[in-house]
Amino acid sequence: MTEKRYAVTGMTCEHCVRTVSSEIGSVTGVRSVGVDLASGQVTVHGDGFTDVDIRLAVDEAGYQLADS
Q1: 47 partner at 20 to 30 Å CA-CA among 33, 38, 56, 57?
Q2: How far lies 3's CA from each of 20, 32, 37, in Å?
Q3: pTM for this entry
């Protein structure tokens, strides 16, 4: 199983956390999503997903991945 971490900008509340978690959780291959609101860090576990898949899901949720 793969673990990847992403920085997401624009999250300010628990609603944001639920929205981002739900969108990323719907990506094929994602098994679990953990969001730390204070740091803006999102940890994704699973197999078969790509960074592009996660970026698109975060965009769909109305937020952005921070440039790395």
Answers
A1: 38
A2: 17, 10, 18
A3: 0.93
pLDDT at 42 over 70: yes
For the chain, what is the domain count? 1
Q: What is the CATH number of the domain that holds 19?
A: 3.30.70.100
How distant is the alpha carbon of residue 24 from its chain centre? 5
Give the DSSP H/E element, type plus range, for residue 4.
Answer: strand 2-9
- Which tokens in the block code for residue 10? 């624009």
